[in-house]
């Protein structure tokens, strides 16, 4: 399609006048039927790379996405923008709702689907009857065991591609090392995939990492910083409780600003409310977990603080990258104490099942097999063995990989079981060590004496653009004097209920009330 | 406090005849027939499904807290049964309980409320010339309702906003400042998203359970008032029109009902539907509760009914097991439940 025409379509469907770097190239590639691995930094508008082609191509675009809440948000936003033919298929929907979508596939242009549903044999069959013109793998690093969020279901996607007779494929990610890029291409069995890699460094974000002695000192620093800069701010925590607690402290310290917290444990309606308030500049400061941020299109976040240590650089780059999408100067500050490493260590442990649990699961599977019983429900297994969802998903996938589980059936011989058991334990150790190594890299980075920018991106790319402001806390930084664009939200909210009601309902003073 | 008062009320009314978890099911609005029947039996139907998002953890934490505060204590017979302490009685007597209409109007009130929220969001946005916004109500049925009725309103946004203001202003008068505050700050308008439950709790220095329940009580009372005085609330009664969900019966019970009406017996129905006899029994109890004038005579003879009623009087208890022990052996649990379903209607 001619250049101007693409821009016109972009304006028509999404209301943007121009493309951001990388978008147009990738869109042209997929429209021509080229398979692409696209790596674009956080906040660069990855989703337009498939949303626009979905509107322009005949047939269906399938988007595999790992996070259900993110999928639902995207569909909602597209519908609010009146983009036609968008829907989703996920495990929050009941069987009837899913059937409804599957029966009407031909009516849709863009379908978001979770990997575990797509790879289900009963679902795949439905897709054979429609023309799939584009297959998108969002957060493609999930396919690699060496990516920062491995999702076993993603490994089955190459089989799905076979079943669908290899539609044009677009794999997208924000933060992947060259090693993981190769792994993605290899796992998808598409050696000729075109790589479109864009640098992930963000010249407008000032990087700072500072060691403190205690949590109290962290709070002090944060308060001082927020006193200096009245800007839209995000503070990241590893723990929901600490996020809630800190939000309360900050709300007290800054009575003129609007502070709240956000985490995955909140109800859907309230999560949307908080996201929308933040986007509408009704909120100034959010204390959140990593659940916040993906899919949030707020471009004037000026300050991102990490209260806890992220588990690896990839997550840090993604979270810090939510600052300054509009290109204006922003600050990303990481605070840490020497003790902080224990939290991510604990979290790593929680992602993997314990050896003793694996042993008990094997015993149980053997017993079930001898009684001729099928594999129990996921929820049952999770409760019975006190596994969290991630742990059981991991273990189940391993059992499938070793042919001990096929569909709902258990197949095992003593010989096979023994071998699988040892190999799974070895794999758990390997994963654990690898995650610890990633954490170690993170720790080295925060402690490094040399330029933070250089060492942060070194693993991913060979160079970076010169920063538009101060570089980082190692290269020298005058804390109180960053020219961050101030944003004073004047949130109108009346203490008088009648005023508030009038205000919301847009009723003027001319109304008689008494 | 409201949350505690509701749990205390339930414990008091259950009179050590049902376990604490039946309160959890009641507040959450479990559809099972046991929960519905108990709700009527113990005159707790107004609290039915007033807190659908309640989690087991939160509920149990509250029970532990009440026990620690010495407002309740474990029953004599079983650990999972509770009763009020004297302190609990005193506290409850002093508390002015909020009004709910859970079983009768709860669902309808929530449909009414969701429609109202989405309508206000739509009207205020349209009034400002904005047609694209993220709907605060997810429910497709509610969104569909707006789509259907909007043509009637289109072009008259200003008048509608004025009308809604006037009616909400009048309707809110009798409520406390706290309730009014919670209600208006939860509303979403043009570029102003309403406060989340957590934010409301923090703004008004309330416990989040109480915010949820206060809001629920306001919804119920508004709904009832609007429907009682339709002429005073023309706009709001338009919003509440046809908000009562279709029959409260489960699909399966409806099928059983049709077969009963065709003259099939319990065993025949069970074999036709390949269901257990017990399941059919559950359906019949459900029918006895929900269908006015549903005859229970085909399943309980007048003599048997008399035996059961007298046993209940003698024992002054609704405990199934005690009643069963007090009546002749040929009377079964199903028959007792049927008679009980007729008790408090």
Automatic annotation (TrEMBL), chain A:
Residues 218-369 form the Helicase C-terminal domain. GO terms for molecular function: 3'-5' DNA helicase activity; ATP binding; DNA binding; four-way junction helicase activity; hydrolase activity. InterPro entries: DEAD/DEAH_box_helicase_dom, DNA/RNA_helicase_DEAH_CS, DNA_helicase_ATP-dep_RecQ, Helicase_ATP-bd, Helicase_C-like, P-loop_NTPase, WH-like_DNA-bd_sf. Keywords: ATP-binding, DNA-binding, Helicase, Hydrolase, Nucleotide-binding. Pfam families: DEAD, Helicase_C. Residues 27-194 form the Helicase ATP-binding domain. One of its GO terms (biological process) is DNA recombination. PROSITE patterns: DEAH_ATP_HELICASE (PS00690), HELICASE_ATP_BIND_1 (PS51192), HELICASE_CTER (PS51194). GO terms for cellular component: bacterial nucleoid; cytoplasm; replisome. The keyword Iron does not apply. PANTHER family: ATP-DEPENDENT DNA HELICASE RECS-RELATED, DNA HELICASE RECQ FAMILY MEMBER. This is ATP-dependent DNA helicase RecQ. The gene is recQ.
UniProtKB/TrEMBL annotation, chain B:
Residues 252-340 form the Helicase Helix-turn-helix domain. It comes from the Bacteria. InterPro entries: Helicase_HTH, YpbB-like. Pfam families: HTH_40 (PF14493). This is Helicase Helix-turn-helix domain-containing protein. The gene is ypbB.
């Amino acid at each position: 399609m001619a250049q101007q025409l693409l821009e016109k379509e972009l304006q028509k469907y999404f209301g943007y006048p121009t493309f951001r770097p990388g978008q147009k190239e990738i869109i042209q590639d997929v429209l021509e039927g080229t398979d692409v691995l696209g790596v674009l930094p956080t906040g660069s508008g990855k989703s337009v790379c498939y949303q626009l082609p979905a509107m322009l191509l005949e047939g269906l675009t399938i988007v595999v996405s790992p996070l259900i809440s993110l999928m639902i948000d995207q569909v909602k936003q597209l519908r609010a923008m009146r983009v036609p033919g968008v829907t989703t298929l996920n495990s929050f929907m009941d069987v009837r709702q899913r059937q409804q979508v599957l029966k009407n596939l031909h009516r849709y242009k863009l379908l978001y689907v979770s990997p575990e549903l797509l790879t289900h044999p009963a679902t795949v069959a439905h897709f054979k009857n429609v023309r799939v013109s584009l297959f998108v793998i969002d957060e493609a690093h999930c396919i690699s065991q060496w990516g920062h969020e491995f999702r076993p279901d993603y490994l089955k996607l190459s089989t799905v591609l076979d079943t669908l007779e290899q539609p044009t494929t677009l794999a997208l990610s924000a933060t992947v090392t060259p090693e993981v890029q190769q792994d993605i291409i290899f796992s998808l069995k598409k050696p000729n995939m075109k790589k479109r890699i864009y640098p992930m460094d963000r010249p407008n974000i000032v990087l700072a990492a500072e060691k403190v002695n205690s949590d109290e000192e962290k709070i002090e620093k944060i308060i001082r910083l927020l006193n200096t800069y009245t800007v839209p701010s995000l503070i990241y925590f590893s723990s929901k409780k600490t996020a809630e607690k800190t939000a309360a402290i900050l709300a007290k310290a800054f009575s003129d600003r609007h502070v709240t917290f956000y985490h995955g444990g909140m109800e859907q309606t309230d999560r949307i409310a908080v996201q929308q308030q933040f986007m509408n500049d009704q909120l100034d400061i959010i204390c959140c977990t990593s659940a916040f941020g993906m899919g949030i299109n707020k471009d004037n976040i000026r300050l991102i603080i990490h209260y806890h240590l992220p588990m690896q650089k990839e997550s840090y780059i993604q979270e810090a990258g939510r600052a300054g999408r509009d290109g204006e100067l922003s600050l990303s500050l990481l605070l840490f104490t020497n003790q902080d490493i224990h939290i991510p260590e604990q979290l790593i442990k929680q992602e993997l099942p314990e050896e003793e649990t694996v042993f008990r699961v094997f015993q149980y599977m053997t017993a079930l097999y001898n009684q001729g019983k099928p594999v129990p429900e996921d929820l049952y297994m999770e409760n019975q063995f006190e596994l969290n969802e991630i742990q059981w998903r991991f273990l189940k996938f391993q059992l499938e990989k070793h042919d001990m589980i096929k569909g709902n059936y258990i197949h095992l011989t003593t010989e096979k079981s023994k071998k699988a058991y040892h190999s799974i334990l070895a794999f758990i150790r390997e994963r654990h060590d690898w995650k610890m190594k990633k954490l170690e890299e993170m720790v080295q980075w925060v402690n490094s004496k040399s330029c933070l920018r250089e060492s942060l991106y070194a693993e991913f790319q060979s160079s970076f653009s010169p920063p538009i402001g101060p570089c980082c806390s190692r290269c020298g930084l005058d804390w109180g004097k960053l020219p961050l664009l101030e944003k004073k939200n004047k949130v109108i909210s009346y203490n008088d209920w009648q005023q508030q009601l009038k205000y919301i309902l847009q009723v003027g003073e001319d109304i008689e009330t008494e | 406090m409201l949350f505690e008062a509701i749990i205390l009320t339930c414990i008091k009314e259950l009179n050590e005849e049902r376990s604490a978890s039946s309160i959890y099911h009641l507040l959450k609005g479990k559809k099972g027939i046991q929960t519905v029947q108990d709700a009527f039996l113990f005159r707790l139907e107004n609290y039915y499904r007033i807190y659908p998002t309640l989690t087991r953890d939160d509920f149990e934490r509250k029970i532990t807290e009440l026990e620690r505060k010495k407002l309740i204590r474990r029953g004599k017979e079983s650990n999972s049964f509770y009763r009020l302490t004297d302190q609990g009685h005193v506290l409850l007597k002093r508390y002015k309980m909020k009004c709910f209409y859970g079983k009768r109007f709860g669902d309808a009130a929530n449909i009414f409320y969701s429609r109202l929220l989405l309508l206000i969001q739509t009207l205020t946005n349209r009034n400002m010339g904005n047609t694209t916004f993220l709907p605060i109500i997810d429910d497709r049925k509610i969104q569909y309702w707006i789509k259907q009725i909007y043509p009637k309103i289109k072009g008259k946004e200003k008048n509608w906003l004025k009308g809604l203001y006037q009616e909400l202003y009048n309707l809110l008068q009798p409520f406390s400042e706290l309730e009014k505050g919670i209600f208006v700050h939860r509303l979403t308008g043009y570029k102003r998203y309403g406060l989340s439950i957590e934010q409301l709790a923090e703004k008004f220095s309330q416990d989040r359970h109480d915010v949820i329940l206060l809001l629920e009580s306001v919804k119920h009372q508004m709904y009832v008032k609007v429907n009682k005085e339709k002429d005073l609330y023309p706009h709001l009664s338009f919003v509440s029109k046809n908000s009562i969900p279709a029959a409260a019966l489960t699909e399966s019970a409806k099928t059983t009902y049709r077969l009963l009406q065709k003259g099939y017996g319990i065993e025949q129905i069970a074999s036709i539907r390949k269901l257990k006899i017990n399941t059919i029994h559950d359906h019949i109890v459900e029918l006895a509760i929900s269908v006015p004038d549903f005859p229970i005579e085909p399943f309980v003879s007048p003599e048997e009914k008399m035996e059961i009623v007298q046993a209940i009087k003698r024992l002054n208890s609704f405990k199934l097991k005690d009643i069963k022990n007090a009546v002749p052996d040929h009377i079964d649990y199903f028959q007792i439940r049927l008679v009980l379903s007729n008790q408090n209607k």
